[in-house]
Amino acid sequence: MITQIVEKFNITIPQDLINKLNLKVGDNIDIDIDIEDDKIIIKPVLVIPKAQAGFWSKEWHQVENKAEKELENGQARKLIINQDVYEDLENW
Length: 92
What we know:
92 residues, Pemi-like Protein 1, Chain: D
């Protein structure tokens, strides 16, 4: 795929790439540059409001996954969240 830099240094993302990455108008992308290999890397990203970031953390998902498995196995019980994880979530 070849595209051309136009006025104001804009580029058009070729339709094939838009389709492969399932991009839509208004989507956010992360652009990274690998100077050594002359590469520009484009990755679709989901921007999460800071107030919700704790719910997307690795620790939160570990707690959620554990609770989900316990529910599936009929082992429903009161889940006590580690105090450190809770404090981290409050600070987001």
